[in-house]
Amino acid sequence: MAVTTGLSGNEIYCLAEKGYTPGNIVVGNSVHSLGLIRSVGTGLKAMLGGELTQITQLIEDGRKTAYQRMLQEAVNYNATGVTGVDSQLIFHGGNVEFLAIGSAVHANGTTPLNKFSTSADGQELFAQLDVGFKPVCFAFGNVAYSMGIGRGLLGRLKTLARGEIKEYSHIFNHTRHLALSRIIAHAKEHKANAVLGIKTTILPFGGVNEMLMLGTASSHAKLSGDTFNEPISSDMTNIEMWNMISKGYMPLRLLLGTSVYSLGLVGGITSTIKSFVRGEINELTRLIYDARENALAIINEEAKAIGADDVIGVKTYVYQLGNGLIEFLAIGTAVKKTSSLTTESSQLPPQAIIVDKDSFYDSNVNNSLKVNINTGNKPINKGMMFIYIPVILLLLLLHLFLRMMTD
Question: Is 64 helix (H, G, I), strand (E, B) or coil?
Fold first, then answer.
């Protein structure tokens, strides 16, 4: 019987090298009403800020239901595993569809028949297996949260001054670490000692924000429980991890740090006026520098606390949060020198590192109803230009008025 798979030719080649053949695409879904989610989000907890546990649970249940239905379809195909598991949100008017999709694989006669699911595609799975990490299950951790009116009022008062807004920094740091702790707990529930290939996304959802971490709970025989009390975690790709292990390093923990800074009312007006002339804007230069240093200091301190040798793959992001606020996020993986982990192959095959090219292009992607939560995008303040234009015009008029007064 013909197989309909989402695996590319390169992925099929890599999986064949590890004893797996492609199976059919497997799908699971669950549709929920956004009306119920919005009604929960308008309660007292949303006013106070922080995690909205009811919404977290609603979203978690939707994702789990879709995932379990996908697994059941894989069982119906008598699959050994499911690769490339993806979780998507598709909005249908006032409803949201939780969609889980992946590609089934079948073990050949000599390959162990341990059932598994993984967020890794065929190429990433090859690299993971080659360093001895056996996939256990697709894992995720999420948290839905609100900035809150109470914290928002205090934060807005502090935006009049320049510097870090610790109330906002605390919310962002706390929620990120909640999601991380939950994906690690998911791995521990399934007796795994590692969570690999973690992808992090922040997504607006029903009037609140959801932070989501997706990865693969995995197990390595040489990671003893005595040495590692918690499962290791990594946001490196599995191919990156293969390269690091081949050079004598292993991942320890995903590290992240965030700082929310305010330019301040006076600084904002000054920098806006200066933006009309050429030259450096010292206020913005110093502000962004301080925010960057603070976020990096957070992950450096955590790396020292766990005895890491280095922090690699550090990625930095700056986001405009509105009201003169910017967020600076730093995320990377702490690694440590080791000789206990090795690679089976001396080199990765070319098929494992070739990037598959898209052969379909959607020119309406920005207006699409489909939202891929694995892209790592953080859509904040999209479509807000209509608010900024009158503010800019007002500041321009103020600048002209001040010039007339001085003349």
Answer: helix
For residue range 119-145, list pLDDT tens digits in order: 999 999 999 999 999 999 999 999 988
Q: Strands of 208-219's sheet, edge to edge?
A: 50-51, 134-146, 208-219, 194-205, 232-233
Cβ partners under 8 Å of residue 179, min gap 6: 141, 142, 143, 200, 211, 212, 213
- Sheet bearing 163-164, strands edge to edge: 163-164, 249-262, 325-337, 310-322
Asked if residue 108 belongs to a domain, the reply is yes
Summarize pLDDT for 3-50 with one digit per residue, the tens: 999 999 999 999 999 999 999 999 999 998 877 665 655 554 555 557
Distances (CA, A) of 268 to 119, 291, 319, 400: 43, 16, 16, 17
Which pLDDT band holds residue 153 (cuts at 50, 70, 90)?
very low
Residue at 194 is within a domain: yes
Domain residues for the domain of 215 are 9-255
For the chain, the domain total comes to 1
In a domain, 20, yes or no: yes
In this structure, how many other beta carbons lie within 10 angstroms of the beta carbon of residue 380?
14
Q: CATH no. for residue 49? A: 3.30.110.70
Separation between Cα atoms, residue 213 and residue 98, nearest integer Å: 16
243 lies in a domain?
Answer: yes
